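Input:
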Amino acid sequence: MKRQRESERDINDIDRLSDLPDFVLLHIMEFMDIKDVVQTCILSKRWKNLWKSMTNLTLHCLDDGRTYTRVSPLEDTDQTCILSFSKFVSRILSDRDGSLHLQHLDFAHRDTPEITLLEVMEYAASHNVQQFRFPVEFYPPHTFELPLSILCCRSLTFLKLDFWIFSSANNKRLSNHGSMKTQHPCFSRLKSVKVERGPLPMALDDKGISTVKYLLQNSPLAKVDIITCFVVDMLALEGFVVDMLALEGFVVTHQSSHELQVCFDIL
Amino acid sequence: MAKTPEPKRTISLKPCDGDVIEVSPMIAKQMQTIQSFIEDDSFIATTTIIPLPNVTAFQLSKIIDYLNYHSNSKAVADNVKESTKKFDEEFLKELEHDKLKELLHAANYLNVKEVLDFLCQAVADLIQDKSVKFVRKFFGVVNDYSVEEEEDIRRTHAWAFEGVEED
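Output:
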C-alpha cells in the first residue's frame, strides 16, 4: 500500500512495524469494537480507508450484556443509544467498500428499527454473506418478516437467527411468497437442521412437523435432529418455512458452519 | 547445525539467526507456510532443512511453545481453561510491544492461524480505549495528515467519534 511519509522517512522503528500487511491489520480490527475500528481512520492516510475493506463485521449494540436481557422495556438512555447505533450501522454499511463480499456478519441488537434490520439484511444478502448471525430482540413484542433476499441468499452457509418474535395473526403475506419460494429454495447451502425446545412447553403439532419436513425436502440437509419443538398458533404454513420464520418466532441457532438449529419459540 | 542422519520424523526449521529447530510434524502442520514446503515434491523429511529467513529463533520458539502448549492442553480436559488463560497471560507478559509486533510478522509469515488469532486479539485488547497517540506509536504510524486534513477527517467521521476526546 502506498504511504506518504516523505519527511518522516528517517524516523526510527517506523517502517517495519507499520509494514504489518493490511491483512494482519484487518485481522486485528476484527477483534476490536467496531467504533474503535472506524476511528483508526484518524491514524494516517494509509489507515483512512483501511477499515472499509473488512470482510468480517461484528456490530453489537449495548455490549454490556443488556442486549439479551429480555422482556424488559428499555431505559430512555438505551433508546437514544439504540437509535444512534442504528445510524452508526447505516454509516458503516454505506461507507464500507461495497465491491468486497462479506464473509461474516454478526449483528446483535435489540429493538432495532425495522428499517435498519432490513437494511442490514439486504446488505448482507447483496454482498454474498457466508456466515450471518443475527440475534435481535423486540420489546414490546412484534413481528418481523425476513426479507426474501436473505432466505434465498445462495452464499449463506451458516445462519444464526435469534429472533424473539411473537405470535401474530397476520398471515396475509403467506400466499404471496408461495410461488417465489419454488423458484428460490431457501437456505440452499445449509446442511442440517436441528429443532430444539423453546422456553414454553408446547407440543410440536402436525403442521410444525410438516414444516420441518418441507425444510428438509427443499434444502440439501444432511440430517434433522428433532429434540423438542414448541409451536403456538401454527398458521396454515405447510411448505412455507419463510413465513413461519417471520411470523412464528422461529429461532434459528447454529452448531457449526454447516449445521442449523431451529427452535420454535413463542412467548 | 545439521542433526545426525539417523531416520527422524521431525521437521527441521532454520531460523535466520540461530540453529536448526526440530518440530514434530503435528506442530509443523499448523504452519501453513511449512506445510506447503512439506507437500512439495522435492521435500525429503530426513535431509531437508527449511530455511526461514524472515523468522528469528526467538520468534520461532515462541510460536512453537504456543502451539505445543495449546495442542497438549486440548488433550487434558480438567482445568484447561484456567491454566490456558494463565499460559496465555504469561506468554504475552514476556513480550514487549515491539516483540509482540515482530511475532505477529512471524506468525503471519508462517501463516499459523492459531497464533495469529491469539496475537491479533492481544493487540486489539492492548489498543482498546487508548489514545490516538498511543495507537500511532504502537503501530509505528507517522501521522501524515496535515492539521486541516485531520480536522476534516474528524468532521466527516464525526459519527464515529462521538464521545471521543481529542488528544
